[in-house]
Amino acid sequence: MTPNINVADPSETPEERSLANALTLEGEARAFWRMRWRMVRHALGQSLATARLRMSLVVFLSVFFWVGLFALFLEAFRFMNISIGHTATYGIIVQTIYSVFFASLMVMLILSAGIIIYSGLYCSAEAAFLLTMPIRAERIVQHKFQEAIAFSSWGFLLLGTPMLVAYGVESRAPWYYFVLLLPFMLTFVYIPGSIGAILCLVLVYRMPRLRQHWLVAIGSTTAIGLLVAAWASLSGGENDLLTPPWFLKVLSRLQFSQYRLLPSWWLSTGLLQAASKNPAPKLDYQPSWAQSLLFLSLLVANALFAHLLTMWTGSRLYRAGYSALHTQHTVRKRHKQFWLDEVLERSLLFLDPPMRYLILKDLRVFRRDPVQWSQFLIFFGLLTLYFVNIHRFSYEVNYIAWVNIISFLNLAVVGLILSTFTTRFIFPMISLEGRRFWILGLLPVKRDAILWSKFLFAAMISLIPCSLLILLSDAMLQITWMVIAVHQLVCVILCVGLSGIAVGLGATIPDLREQSPSKIAAGFGGTLNLVLSAIYILLVVLLTALPCHFFLVWRESSWAATWLAALLLGTLLSLGIGVAATLVPMRMGLAAFRKLET
Amino acid sequence: MIQFDNVTRAYGSKLAVAGLNLDIPGGELFALLGPNGAGKTTSIKMLVGLLRPTSGTVRVCGYDVVRENQHASRLLGYVPDVPYLYDKLTGREFLEFIADMYGLDPEQSIRQLVRAISDFELTDFVDELTETYSHGMRQRLTFAAALLHQPTVLVIDEPMVGLDPRSARVVKDLLQTKAREGMTIFMSTHLLSVAEEIAHRVAIVDHGRLRFLGTVDQLRGELAVTHTSLEHLYLSLTATPGEILEGPGPVNPADASEPQSPARFGNP
What we know:
- The complex is a heterodimer of chains A (598) and B (268).
- Helices cover 79% and strands 0% of the residues of chain A.
- Chain A has 598 residues and is an all-alpha fold.
- Chain B has a single domain, classed as P-loop containing nucleotide triphosphate hydrolases (Rossmann fold, 3-Layer(aba) Sandwich).
- Chain B contains 10 helices and 10 strands.
């Protein structure tokens, strides 16, 4: 309880008594922390009591992911150290890697914190509830800001710590390097988080009417800018790619990430100073640990200042911005029949009308939700960009076996991106029917048809872009017709199997209470779906890629017939796995879906 | 206790509330009636500080809800139409959080919690997580939370939504008791019978404009004059031009837009 002891004065009116109980800043903070602590305790207790397997799997997968990344980074640092063999050059490269890595993460953190804070402060029921409480606006902003920092930083820690620890191990950094890692990272997160929060508060306050257009414009401009910058930094003439001049050119282009006023540079330099046992050449007037602490202090001071600025902005703009945003006139748009719906309706005439209309309904929902297709578009757009420019690596394209490996790697990448799409959008489809489920439940349609319609929808919208992308990749790599045919078959197996896994699992373990697809995807079911999808992709691609590779290597020897047979066998096995990956989860999903109560 | 001084709220070019003037004294049970989209919820959201008026002022006990928001909120209790509860808190923990928010000291907090749990019959489930509650249980807990700090003004958006007849009776009795004790109650409702039964004064709004303001007796007087039901009177007041109303009662929609008496129709 807050220790605001008020002695009741009998002469006080109820109003005076209420006003006398005003909470102090500390009282507000204590109340929120206590509420949060209780919620975390209950959630953990519930998970431990009822979902131990789920918890264990989440912990296991996180540890597995962390250890995998750590091993990868450790090997990469070792490889670089041995290959370069020159301490100063190695130091410059590591400094560049750190600076670019943290500068990119800073941009991502600004965007992700801004988006999370926007949805927390302006779109959540909790914010509306808290705004009616007698608390300061900046307290609500701080509450949601801390949530956003927690959401943003776990990914940052999971991605960043394996690399930093690996570098520490490889360079035999002193003990305080490892101790300083967390303080450095957590302090750093506060700065881009604050920038994202301030941008969000100012944008909503200044232009609530244009919020969507502006957000899309700013997001697209940033994404395009980053792409152009990345491309400009890494590209070069076709003939000097991966040569020392190209390398020096890239290093000089990446110099922007080492601009002295960037918090990401303070972080990378501070950490490298801590890892260094010797004073750095340009900062040799103090021991390296003192230099490191200096950079940590710089980060702490700026983080505190940024935090104060966020709260100050929140106290002035939040309530007004909330009101402005929620009193915008909603434009009611009439949606006419779209040509794509008509094409789809005609092309699905062989299906029963109910199933056809269910697919059409899902397509309309997909089409009218830019969040869904824009992510799909960005990922596949990036892949298209890469495939179109694949000929730049032409210095190796003559060696057919390597080309074949690259083509199968491209196939695996398309599959992996598709698996993130099926996890994020297809897996939550049944869960999202939650509150509307009675509509489907009462329809004179068999439940199996509902689930199969979702499967067909998923397979259809996956297959067309994936197949085209693989064709593009194969065309750019000038691959033989036989391999193109194998790729197309594997692509069909991947799309159908991944759709089966996502729809089947989504119906087997739905989360009917949750309304946010991202939270459903981030939960246990979504994680399981992603892991199973990744295993499935690896199996299917390896079973065809390896025999195909060896067939091409030995195509002119007596082993050619053996490896051709192995390729056929591998393709058949892939097909079998694909059928199993489609039917087993779908059968489980159908059984669970039939039992689901409306 | 509650004052709307020429309050207007626009959503873009559309006026949700147009020049609303209300002055509600202490101890009054006031009901705001109107069809969907009439401006009831907007008025309530302005009163509790969620939305700001485009022009005009809303005051609670003399405090401007925009400029002196914390003072005004401290004197208010609010029951929204869709209650918000933290799923991973028990009912008791939620009430304790509310007590913390209103700065109740430990002794006051314990006393008020015991009273609220008893008044709203929460004992059976107050120590369970709120995610397991039914709609009725959530509504009762929300009422208990809104009254925990003994507010001077209670604002309720659609108080009877989802309540069974027994719970609805309890709520009606409670509101009447609280009003007798001096609490000012401002509620919006679709249910004419509720307004008729418990409200001291009612206001009927339509398209953001006040169509009727007066006591229930004055409204009943109107009923006697026109020999029509309260429902029919309400429908007439909120009818769109040209709309033909079936059933008893000769009230002409055109008449409704013209205040028959300054005491009952239009702004006071």
